[in-house]
Amino acid sequence: MAPAYLLAGVSAAGAAGCGRETDLAGVVCSLGCKIVELPVTYLGLPLHSGAIPKNKVQGLVDKVVARLPAWRGSMMSRGGRLVWIKSVMTAVPIYAMMANGIPTWAREEIEACCRRFLWAGADASVRGKCAVAWPVVARPYEFGGLGVLDLRLMGLALQVRWLWLQRNPADDGRAWTELPLKVAPEVRCLFHASTNFEVGNGQQTLFWKDRWIVGSSVEDIAPALISLVAKRTRSSQSVAVALQGNQWIRELRGGFSVQAISQYLKLWDAVREINLSPSTPDRLLWRWSSDGHFSV
DNA sequence: AGATCAGAATCCGATTAAAG
DNA sequence: CTTTAATCGGATTCTGATCT
After folding, report:
1. Which of A167, A201, A212, A259 could form a disulfide linkage to A197, CB 3.0–4.6 angstroms apart?
2. pLDDT tens by residue, A105-139
3. Domain locations in chain A as residue ranges
4. Nearest-nucleotide field for A111 (CA, C1')
């Protein structure tokens, strides 16, 4: 049996009284796990009840710095240092970026480290030695860069991956699928802008938010109409439920503006043509790849 | 050869956003 | 509602390339 860790704020549980303590002991007994006080390092990552403290993140930055060659590249050509950056330096933070994401300051410190190494080598200062700005270096060759990984964009992509795994109907059966996922708003925007749903039985697709009507969402077609729907409904009602006896129309509350009426008619037209096929599940498609799959 | 220019990093203060 | 952190814009600093 795989070892499991039950992580709990022991001080909080202790304050709650001994009744809780015995409950806890029962859980520990039946699960065969142990109790650790937060914060803790789990699978090489800092785990914390609140925000991850700065010194834990600093440890990650230090790990990248430690990967600099001992002689600081004084014996390496600039091309050699570039290869080192691409294959070693930028690979170190990938794991942490995938799990939690890393704060802006940490990413900038890692980039500054790579920048100093590439342009200045063993010299301490990089001022005035950079041939081109770092955002240019971090572009693919075909866009005039040196093909170094852009850590900000890679971080976004790695976070989008969680949303993809959560929403992909072809990939269900994950225990955390129904749990709320905490990602940055721009990650959600990127996911929304990059994905289409191909509706089958309509159970996995959100009627109001997802892009499922020939590449656009209800939000795109009828922005004025959206405000008449309860927030909770917007983020939970599936296409299947909404189309069942035109339930979606009953979700519209409040007075219609002229604009809303015209958008309502437009949406009515678009939705009328949709036929669900109960036997096929919905499909989630990544718009930027030919096979519709997301990969990083 | 010396002056000047261009491009980039870094520093610093002010504004804005988030957390408790 | 206050404190703290993040972000932004402008000023400064630095070096190599170019011009006179």
Report:
1. A212
2. 888 888 888 888 888 777 667 777 777 888 888 88
3. 5-37, 54-149, 195-286
4. B9
